[in-house]
Specification:
Elements lengths: L2 E5 L3 H12 L3 E5 L15 E2 L12 H10 L5 E3 L1 H5 L2 H9 L3 H15 L2 H9 L8 E2 L4 E4 L2 H6 L1 H9 L4 E4 L1 H7 L9 E5 L3 E3 L2 H14 L3 E3 L5 E5 L2 E6 L2 E5 L1 E4 L5 H6 L8 E10 L10 E3 L4 E6 L2 E10 L8 H14 L6 E11 L6 E4 L6 E5 L5 H16 L17
Parallel strand pairs: 1-2, 1-14, 2-10, 4-18, 6-16, 14-21
Antiparallel strand pairs: 3-9, 5-9, 6-8, 7-8, 11-12, 12-13, 15-18, 15-19, 16-17, 17-18, 20-21
Bound molecules: flavin-adenine dinucleotide (FAD).
Flavin-adenine dinucleotide binds next to helix 1, strand 15, strand 18, strand 19 and helix 13.
Length: 409
């Protein structure tokens, strides 16, 4: 059995640590923050079983001007940031051709189709039943035009077995009577579920890992390096020997990758959430709103409106306009919403093709990467954990991750 350091205790790192410890390895999980408190804290809570649609789309050119001009759109761009990061933007656009989007959808659906089974393995051992709601999320279109614009994505989902039903106004009103009837149609994601507390999902898996003999060190890792055949981590000016390292540091992963000579086109899609004071029974499902790109999910601490995309890097502070837009739209959909309890922004880790990076470093043997899960990190964390475990143990799996190779760029 190996001594393995996992860097990053977001949902991805915690699930990796879970599977490695379960298989008997000595596992040390490092994070400078408490587990699950960064990007993983603020998600909309959806477990998407088979999602295959990403931000890359051949329709982007056609839809982009309207998206950018709309005051209430799902996408906001800081042009100064974009102009200083043009190579990333070009790479992203190269991944918006029909052929590339088909490749992305096929690769993602083949990976995400194992997501539910991988979580079942964890949930059989870790009781999170209190935090899981077995109600299928719904996604609503305000107008016929928006519904028709989304046909390309819906056809892609059909092709790659993402199961959904189309629902009309009457169905929606029965499912969610408190929502203003300002919608045209919707879809229901069949067989999916959501959590009432993303932080508790991470925390419960983490607590189980510690109970089973895993270790946690509340420290920032500064670098990874080799001395001869041996592998080390550096933190607080001290060197720590390990057999293997997994970099699962979300959007910050490339900082560590660079210390061993790797360099990945990792950027961020900033996302926001607002929590409204608890209005019990106002919503039963997690409800997405196509026009503005966020979901409203009934959570333990209130109704959380979470989503949207802002391209503006890691340094800029929260965009108040984005929060104002989310609040105003949420109130127009659900006028009975209570007071705003809290506001949050987080950093989705995103590669230009929206596929995660999963695999071993070619620059430094025994260093593995698991980051870049963009909008789907909560959903894909367990299958990522299983995959990393198989790679480390050199065991064959039926999951093909060629498309997720760190060296595909
Ligand atoms: C608004 C919003 C809504 C979302 N909704 C959903 C959803 O409904 N369903 C879904 O599947 N996904 C959703 N996502 C995406 C999901 O939240 C992310 O993909 C996921 O949280 C990424 O997890 P992570 O573990 O890679 O990153 P993080 O949670 O950010 O964890 C990375 C950890 O690494 C640590 N770290 C970084 N550098 C170092 C270092 N040098 N040393 C030690 N530790 C380090 C950080 O402190 C952090 O704790 C959403 C995201 C946002 C922003």
């Amino acid at each position: 059995m190996s001594k393995i350091a996992v860097i990053g205790a977001g949902i991805i790192g915690v699930c990796i640590a879970h599977f490695l410890r379960k298989n008997g390895h000595e596992v040390i999980l490092y994070d400078q923050n408490e587990p699950g408190t960064q990007t993983s804290f603020g998600s909309a809570g959806l477990f998407a079983n088979r999602e295959c649609v990403t931000a890359n789309s051949p329709k982007l050119w056609k839809n982009l001007p309207a998206m950018l001009l709309s005051k209430n759109g799902p996408l906001v761009i800081d042009w100064l940031y974009v102009f200083t990061h043009l190579p990333w933007i070009f790479r992203f656009l190269r991944n918006c051709t029909t052929a590339r989007v088909e490749h992305i959808a096929k690769s993602l659906s083949s990976f995400s189709s194992h997501a539910k089974f991988a979580y079942e393995e964890i949930f059989n051992e870790v009781d999170v039943s209190k935090y899981i709601v077995h109600k299928e999320p719904i996604y609503l279109y305000e107008s016929k035009e928006l519904f028709e614009k989304d046909q390309y994505a819906l056809n892609l989902r059909k092709k790659y077995n993402v199961h959904f039903d189309i629902i009309n106004k009457e169905d929606i009103a029965k499912m969610e009577p408190s929502i203003e009837p300002i919608y045209y149609k919707g879809i229901v994601f069949k067989g999916e579920r959501f959590t009432k507390s993303p932080i508790q999902i991470t925390k419960k898996i983490f607590d189980n890992f510690i109970r089973n003999g895993g270790h946690f060190v509340l420290k920032k890792i500064d670098s990874i390096f080799r001395k001869g055949d041996s592998l080390f981590l550096k933190c607080d000016e001290q060197e720590h020997y390990v057999d293997k390292i997994v970099v699962a540091a979300g959007v910050w992963s490339n900082i560590l990758a660079r210390t061993i000579g790797d360099n990945f086109p990792l950027d961020t899609e900033r996302g926001y959430h607002i929590i409204f004071e608890n209005n019990s029974n106002l919503l039963a499902h997690s409800v997405g709103w196509a026009k503005t790109g966020f979901y409203m999910t009934p959570m333990d601490d209130g109704i959380r409106a979470a989503g949207t995309v802002e391209i503006a890097g890691l340094k800029k502070s929260m965009n108040k306009n984005m929060l104002t837009m989310i609040e105003a739209t949420a109130r127009s959909i659900l006028p009975q919403l209570g007071k705003v309890k809290s506001q949050w922004m987080g950093f989705r880790p995103t590669l230009p093709d929206s596929l995660p990076v999963i695999g071993e470093s070619q620059k430094c043997k025994n260093v593995y990467y698991a980051f870049g899960h963009q909008h789907l990190g909560l959903s894909l964390a367990a299958v990522t954990g299983k995959m990393i475990c198989s790679l480390i143990e050199n065991k064959p799996t039926n999951i093909n991750i060629e498309a997720l190779s760190p060296y595909r760029f």
